[in-house]
Specification:
Layout lengths: L21 E2 L20 E2 L13 E6 L5 E4 H7 L1 E9 L12 E10 H7 L8 E6 L14 E6 H7 L2 E6 L2 E2 L9 E3 L12 E7 L7 H5 L24 E12 L2 E11 L9 E4 L7 E2 L12 E8 L5 E9 L7 H4 L5 E5 L1
Parallel strand pairs: 3-12
Antiparallel strand pairs: 1-2, 3-4, 5-6, 6-9, 7-8, 7-12, 9-10, 9-11, 13-14, 14-17, 15-16, 15-18, 18-19
The structure holds ligand MTE and molybdenum atom.
């Protein structure tokens, strides 16, 4: 069944240029046996700049409030890169109008960032790290603000397992995904996962928020637009769930619908009860094919057999039926999807 009200943007097709380049992943094809997005299907939000210096060698300055400034060589990082696991990325601006296609999960190779920062020996006033990427384009953007820098609390790299990635899906990073080196911060929105990393600077509490942080303040659910980076909440992804496909079956002459969906976000916090409803005035009922597990990293599929009483227009919404779980965007209705059973 097609989802209604999701715009005309084609999936898995390169669209636009440079800062306005987009590529939307087709999530409807996910199956339990294939939960990994291939490198060529992985979403793109911002393509490689035409001005991107094809600098060989590419180096990353690691300096600021440190005892031992470092110069990281991208080729050396790629040689020492290790498998970092299967991690999901989601754009904080992932919306219904583009089929929620700014969401993908892949295997990454890279180098953990926390030990690299340790090696530079941060000096006492350093409390935060500014990661800066190349972000200058030939074509002015219609929708985005240039500048790609994010400021992280020092301990965030350790707790999140952040790494400098040099490969995705077993392939060297493509230009559009941030070659030669990009940041991946597991559990954080994509806006913090800076591509084309050029500089890593240790800074103190007075560091102002960057244009990228301010651009994404609303979409990462900040309290206003804090002037200082230290007043930003971690841009982590809450629990979220949505249907990715509604299947229509005829079984022994009877019409049955099967809703297949994703559950993701929430770090390593497990979900034991997932609810679903088909009309805003209904109560949530347990998803009948949901198998609670210890964790659902980075994402997991669920199914729900549905026998609607009548034809009509339905709004499918999910909820975590546990009061201690934070699922703000899902609870705001941002992931509701519509089907029309004519
Ligand atoms: N230098 C730079 N890095 C960037 C961006 C950007 O515009 N410039 N966009 C960010 C956003 S908003 C997202 S969602 C992710 C997307 O990464 P992907 O295109 O590889 O999926 O990259 C992030 N890193
Ligand atoms: Mo994003």
């Amino acid at each position: 069944m097609p989802f209604q009200g999701e715009g005309e943007a084609p999936l898995e097709t390169p669209l636009g240029n440079e800062l306005d380049e987009r590529f939307y992943t087709d999530l409807s094809r996910l199956t339990p046996a294939n939960l990994v997005t291939s490198a060529r299907s992985f979403y793109v939000r911002t393509g490689a700049s035409h001005k991107l210096p094809a600098a060989r060698p590419w180096t990353i300055a690691l300096d600021g409030l440190v005892e031992r400034p470092q110069t990281l060589d991208a080729a050396a990082l790629a040689r020492s890169a290790q498998p970092m696991g299967l991690h999901l990325m989601e754009c904080a601006g992932n919306v219904r109008l583009t089929h929620f296609g700014l969401l993908s999960a892949a295997h990454w190779n890279g180098v953990p960032l926390a030990p690299l920062v340790e090696r530079a020996a941060p000096r006492s006033p350093a409390t935060q790290v500014l990661v800066s990427g190349f972000d200058s384009y030939e074509t002015p953007s219609q929708t985005s603000v240039a500048g790609a820098d994010w400021v992280f609390p020092l301990e965030a790299f350790r707790t999140s397992g952040a790494f400098l990635a040099t490969a995705m899906g077993g392939e060297t990073l493509s230009p559009d995904h941030g070659a030669p080196v990009r940041l991946v911060v597991p559990g954080w929105y994509g806006c913090a996962c800076i591509k084309w990393v050029q500089r890593i600077t240790l800074v103190d509490d007075t560091q102002p928020s960057t244009s990228q942080m301010l651009e994404f303040a609303v979409r990462t659910l900040q309290n206003g637009k804090p002037e200082r980076a230290r007043d930003f909440q971690p841009a982590t992804i809450d629990h979220a769930a949505m249907p990715v496909r509604v299947e229509h079956w005829t079984v022994a002459g009877e019409t049955v619908y099967r809703v297949v969906g994703l559950l993701w976000g929430g770090g390593s916090q497990a979900v034991t009860r997932l609810g679903i409803r088909f009309r805003p005035e209904d109560d949530f009922v347990p998803v009948n094919g949901f198998r609670p597990g210890p964790a659902h990293l980075p994402w997991k599929l669920w199914t729900h057999l549905w026998k609607p009483a009548t034809t009509g227009f339905y709004a499918i919404q999910l909820a975590v039926m546990e009061p201690t779980v934070s699922a703000r965007k899902m609870d705001m209705g941002l992931y509701v999807r519509f089907v029309d059973l004519a």
